[in-house]
Amino acid sequence: MEAVITEEIIARQPPEAQAISKKKRGGQPGHEKHERALIPTDQCDDVETLRPAECRRCGEKLAGSDPEPLRHQVWELPEIKPEVTEYQLHRLRCARCGETTCAELPVGVPRGQSGPRLMAFVAMLMAYFRQSKRRTAEFVGTLLDQPCCPSLTVKIENEVTAALRPSYEELAAQLPSQEQLSIDETATKEANGKAWLWTFVAGLFTVFAVRATREATALGVFLGERFHGIVNCDRAKMYWRVGRLQWCWAHLRRDFQGLIDTGDTRAKWLGERLRQATCELFEHWADYRAGKISRAALLRRMGPVRRKVELSLLRGMQSDSRDARGMCRELYEHRGWLWTFLRHEGVEPTNNAAERSLRHAVIWRKLSFGTQSAAGSRFVETMLTVIETCRQQRRNALAFVTAAIEAHLAHQSAPSLLPGV
């Protein structure tokens, strides 16, 4: 334990107290060179053949070709020019009855002036690349040479939400049937009120939802009474109603560090003992994940760790510190939720999956300060769901959004985000 504490003290020292490396910044001499590989010549849009006209020494005229010339490729952006299609709708008068009839737009042609790819691109700028509506309009106008204003981005936002909503609702309907979910939430804003952004992470898809409450009623809307799986989560009490939990050990490690930082001698001793056991747990889990040990070996190794943790919690229940006593009592009384990952193969000991899925959403929230309407919240939760699910399934998010908009304009069924569909 002393060695672990010493290493942490060294790691926490300010930069000037640590040894300063004498190496220069940047790549070191002898490091492996990294450069863009040349593509085949027949894939280049243009090939220019260059031959020297005369000898560089004596000036004699040169002729012929080099069978293996040096190849140098330059990548450049093409001129960005919008494609504009004009539909001329003729209105003709009937020679028999005098009634006029106007031609209709073909199926799939939008009523507005923005095409499917443009709408998908604008939606991705706002949701994926976290640009404001004004910045998005400036980007589209400046770089794509397409007339755009903030109000147009709002119209596109609503159109994209309508196109993607069936795919979103199809995923949400699958949540109660999942065997395992990682769930987390973070505060956000809707108009002038407080709201919560929830994330439900399954194996191959993720569902986001913006709701006005953090209470368990939000869980009931998405999981209902049919859910009988296991939930990875922190120790927030709204998850307790599920009853089949795996508490996140990464959160617990921070709680144990909090005991150490209180300054109370007994609480510090308790925190150090629990944190050391947590480090051992993560070491064994890392070996198991890397394939270095079998699951049977993992269970054997975790036996002493479990006894150490539960014995420490029993001692902590007698602590003079009210916070330490309350935390230890809660953990010991629900100690089964600490070790669910040992009883059920495939369950993680942390809630890192939900934490990772929320990271992009949290950055977006800090830049945008939330949404200004319920329609904006529906756009955010829908786009975040599509983006994260496409990442999990290694699909192109822009291509999926474009296909969904095309299907919506053609009055066809929306494409599915369900795995294997």
Can you walk through the features of this model?
There is one protein chain. Mean pLDDT is 89; it is low at 1-12. The relative contact order is 0.12. It is extended and about 90 Å long. It has 421 residues and is α/β, with parallel strands linked by helices. 45% of the residues lie in helices and 9% in strands. The chain contains 13 helices and seven strands.
Features:
alpha/beta; 5-stranded mixed beta sheet; two-stranded antiparallel sheet; 7 strands; 9% strand; extended; disordered N terminus
Helix-strand layout with pairing:
Layout: H1 2-12, E1 91-93, E2 100-102, H2 116-127, H3 133-143, H4 150-172, E3 180-190, E4 193-201, E5 206-211, H5 216-223, E6 230-233, E7 245-247, H6 249-261, H7 265-289, H8 295-316, H9 322-333, H10 340-343, H11 352-368, H12 374-392, H13 397-409
Parallel strand pairs: 3-6, 6-7
Antiparallel strand pairs: 1-2, 3-4, 4-5
Number of helices: 13
What portion of residues belong to β-strands? 5-15%
- Dominant shape: extended
Residue windows where pLDDT falls under 50 for at least 5 positions = 1-12
Assembly classification: single chain
* Structural class estimated from helices and strands: alpha/beta
Order of helices and strands: HEEHHHEEEHEEHHHHHHHH
**Order of adjacent strands in the largest pleated sheet:** 5-4-3-6-7
Sheet with most strands = 5 strands, mixed
- Rg to the nearest angstrom? 30 Å
First-last Cα distance: 52 Å
Helical proportion? 40-55%
Total number of strands: 7
